[in-house]
Every structure is written in C-alpha cells, then in structure tokens.
Design a protein that fits this description.
Distance between the termini: 43 Å
Helix content: over 70%
Strand content: under 5%
Radius of gyration: 19 Å
Shape: flat
Length: about 170
C-alpha cells in the first residue's frame, strides 16, 4: 500500500462516519445520496494530495466544506433539470433562498452539537424571540444564568460551526 493510499485510508477512517451523518442531514435522510456524496468527497480528497497530509482540523474543514458544496451543486442541478415534467415551468429559488436553506441546515446541525442547556437558551432567546427575563421564567433559572448561558452557547456554536468548516475559527 502506497503512502498516499495509507493517508487516504486514515483520512477515511477518521472522518467518514461524521461526514456520512452530516451528508445524511443535508440530503434529507436519503442514505444512498449521502453515501454517494461522501464517496465523491473522499475521491476529491484523493485528487488533492495536500488534503491527505494536512493537519486533522484543516482536513476536516476541507472535507465538510467540499461535501456541503457538492450537496449544493446537486441541489442546484436538480432545480435546473427537475425530474418531474409539468406544463408550467417550476419556480426556481434564488441564490439567496438556496444559501438561506443551507445555512439553516448548517445551524441546525451545529445546534444539535451543543449541550441541552445551551441549545435551550438559544432557542428561547433567538428563535422564540423571548427577552432574558421571559427566557429565565420559561427555563426556571435566574436572568443572570440566561445571560451567561447565552454568552457561552454562542461561543460553543461558533466552535461547532468552525469544526464543520462553515466559519473560520477567528471570524467574528
């Protein structure tokens, strides 16, 4: 087995299961498509030897970004060439709608990676639009705890998004 093959196998062993779970979420639970996207991502890694020898964090970021881009490309291709033929042309979402949908999926995945306490406070304050005092009442904790959890939850969310390759570690 060549060095390149060993590096690709190690990359696959390290990241394939996480990539598959991520792909499964992005493809709406379609296991076949998720598997295809992971295989395509690994093939692209093999074609870019610098990824094989990159540090784990950089390789993981590259893999997740490549997988995400592949899913977006497939989605856009299906929008241009829909499978069902109708009398009226299908409405195509704008780039903004596509980006918003993908961002929504990515944030949902990142939220799943947070602790329940951090996830709860973000849902109450940002998704439900509750004030600190309203969130505190609903969660049964003091307002200071809501503020503190929100601060640390946002930091943890940024780390999760960085691990997924969505944002750079230093982005602010």
């Amino acid at each position: 087995m060549s060095t390149e093959e060993r590096l690709l196998k190690a990359l696959h062993d390290e990241h394939a299961s996480a990539l598959w779970r991520y792909a499964l979420r992005l493809t709406g639970g379609d296991e076949g498509r998720a598997q295809d996207v992971v295989q395509e991502t690994m093939l692209r890694a093999w074609r870019h030897p610098q990824v094989l020898s990159a540090p784990d964090v950089e390789a993981r970021r590259w893999l997740f970004r490549t997988l995400r881009n592949r899913v977006i490309d497939e989605w856009r291709a299906r929008q241009v060439r829909p499978e069902v033929v109708t009398d009226a042309p299908p409405e195509r979402p704008t780039d903004d709608e596509v980006d918003a949908a993908v961002e929504s999926l990515l944030v949902a995945e990142a939220l799943r990676r947070l602790s329940p306490a951090h996830r709860e406070v973000l849902v109450e304050c940002f998704y439900q639009g509750r004030s600190v005092s309203e969130a505190a009442r609903r969660l049964g904790v003091p307002p200071g705890t809501v503020k503190s959890r929100t601060y640390y939850a946002l930091r943890a969310l940024r780390v999760a998004l960085a691990e997924m390759g969505v944002v750079e570690e230093g982005d602010g």
